[in-house]
Amino acid sequence: MSAARTRLIAALDTASYDQASQWASMLEGKVDAIKLGLEFTYACGLDAVRTLSERHALFLDLKLHDIPNTVAAGLKALAPIRPFLTTIHALGGPEMIARARGALEEAFNGGPDRPKLLAVTVLTSMNEQSLTEVGIDSTPLEEVVRLGKMAIQAGADGLVCSAHELTALREELGHKPELIVPGIRLVGNNVDDQKRVMSPTQAAEAGADWIVVGRPITRAEDPAAVAQAIQDELKTASS
Ligand SMILES: O=c1ccn([C@@H]2O[C@H](COP(=O)(O)O)[C@@H](O)[C@H]2O)c(=O)[nH]1
């Protein structure tokens, strides 16, 4: 059983402001936060992101990956939106991660309300074969642990990983880093681009702080009912 309750983030991946806003309203009280990513931000713009962030706890998932100066400047520019979580790619390396953390500290004057910086380790859509295809000769587990240790040492507050790596990451890094887990699938609906998947219960029992669920909620006939069912599962797993 996990120590604290695992919380639920709904990924609102859409190019329509009205659709995202409707989902966010219908999921209010059923999810702990919403996540907006590349599709919504590129299609609707940062003003639309800001508007939703004024009404809902926001994880802004733009997965920045560039030279350290550019990533730091990008995060500074995003700071007024005040997400509580935001992402960079761990593969950007320790200097990029340290500069990113420094930029957030500076933008919030070192205060406690700054967004937590998450390093994306190995995308949950990748498996061992996908890693080989990009020239990485390790298993996803080895690569996630390697990148995760480096990223936390460099200043990340937490990691994005799959549920398969949670136990190993907790053994290496303890309970302090926030571990955020997408690639969550409910029984019978895992035929898509996600490769390293697990159920909400499995992720909660392995120690996820947050799970991120997109299509299983947004493509459901009744998104609020699915979100409630996931919350019930999480509550049982942590009781
Ligand atoms: O490794 C990663 C990092 C981020 N994501 C994001 O999470 C959601 C998952 O959505 P589903 O529809 O439940 O697959 C999506 O916004 C991804 O960009 C991820 O899946 N894996």
UniProtKB/TrEMBL annotation:
InterPro entries: Aldolase_TIM (IPR013785), OMPdecase (IPR014732), OMPdecase_AS (IPR018089), OMPdecase_bac (IPR047596), OMPdeCOase_dom (IPR001754), RibuloseP-bd_barrel (IPR011060)
Binding site for substrate: 13, 35, 61-70, 124, 185, 194, 214-215
Domain Orotidine 5'-phosphate decarboxylase: 7-230
Pfam families from the UniProt entry: OMPdecase
Entry annotation: catalytic residues: 63
The keyword Lyase is assigned to this record: yes
Pathway this chain belongs to: Pyrimidine metabolism; UMP biosynthesis via de novo pathway; UMP from orotate: step 2/2
The protein's Enzyme Commission number: 4.1.1.23
SUPFAM superfamilies listed in its UniProt record: Ribulose-phoshate binding barrel
PROSITE patterns: OMPDECASE (PS00156)
Keywords of the record: Decarboxylase, Lyase, Pyrimidine biosynthesis
Enzyme class: lyase
Superkingdom per UniProt: Bacteria
A molecular function (GO) term: orotidine-5'-phosphate decarboxylase activity
The reaction(s) this protein catalyses: orotidine 5'-phosphate + H(+) = UMP + CO2
Family per record: Belongs to the OMP decarboxylase family. Type 1 subfamily.
Subunit structure: Homodimer.
Function: Catalyzes the decarboxylation of orotidine 5'-monophosphate (OMP) to uridine 5'-monophosphate (UMP).
Protein name, entry field: Orotidine 5'-phosphate decarboxylase
